[in-house]
């Protein structure tokens, strides 16, 4: 498990491009038949990727967590951005399709990931946060019919925002949040930009009560996103390519503009789960 420490905004003002990337960019998350995990001291979030190809892959705590099992004191959200896969959680098997997700509550001990087709493997993207109580483990589908152990994203949690004129026509699909999938502190979802739109989270904002991680994907090899971060009056940027993630501290804006449309998964961890609790930054204030 790779460890990342927290950074002061006073220090970040003096970072070079390379230092910014070392501190905040996760350049690769998906390795065949392996689990890649990055532990950030910022709100103790763990960001990871699992791509089982030829065999099932088990999630273990590792020495870094000093725990008997990974979710002994944690919860986890998962969204699959690859082919159909399976997650085995304490003996119960869930089939997780493309862009379907899962919430695994604190206390789940045995977690194994696998793919149904090695030619089109699953790519399980995960965010994990410290937890103080256990909530039900559920499979999350953006659409479909409800069934036991399955939560369908509510229509009010599919929000269309922006416009083509402002180059930010996008749809936000909220997976894990109060009132739909309960958690201790993790909030998670996906935003898809329409063709012709490239801007996300603009006008931008900060939220001191929680940090955020973005995973950008559905981009061709020659495409990229300029991810903007930093204090509103001291902005910085990081070039992000397909299936790369960025860690965003609570004091930082988090916005991006791509060379074409793309999709990203956002995960938030902190003391507040209110999606609308944010401090807006007017475009005129950015520097």
UniProtKB/TrEMBL annotation:
Give its E.C. classification number: 5.3.1.17
Give a yes or no for keyword Isomerase in this entry: yes
Do you know which InterPro entries this protein is assigned to? KduI, KduI/IolB_isomerase, KduI_N, RmlC-like_jellyroll, RmlC_Cupin_sf
Cofactors needed by this protein, per the record, are: Zn(2+)
Which BP terms from GO are recorded? D-galacturonate catabolic process; D-glucuronate catabolic process; pectin catabolic process
Q: In which pathway does it act?
A: Glycan metabolism; pectin degradation; 2-dehydro-3-deoxy-D-gluconate from pectin: step 4/5
For this chain's record, the cofactor binding note is:
Binds 1 zinc ion per subunit.
One GO MF term, please?
4-deoxy-L-threo-5-hexosulose-uronate ketol-isomerase activity
Q: Which residues bind Zn(2+)?
A: 205, 207, 212, 254
Q: Which residues cross the membrane?
A: none
Q: Which SUPFAM superfamilies match?
A: RmlC-like cupins
State whether keyword Cell inner membrane applies.
no
Taken from the record, one Pfam family name reads KduI
| Keyword annotations from UniProtKB, A to Z | Isomerase, Metal-binding, Zinc
Q: What class of enzyme is it?
A: isomerase
Q: Which domain of life is it from?
A: Bacteria
Family affiliation? Belongs to the KduI family.
Query: What does the UniProt record say this protein does?
Result: Catalyzes the isomerization of 5-dehydro-4-deoxy-D-glucuronate to 3-deoxy-D-glycero-2,5-hexodiulosonate.
What name does this protein carry? 4-deoxy-L-threo-5-hexosulose-uronate ketol-isomerase
Which species does the entry assign this protein to? Answer: Schaedlerella arabinosiphila
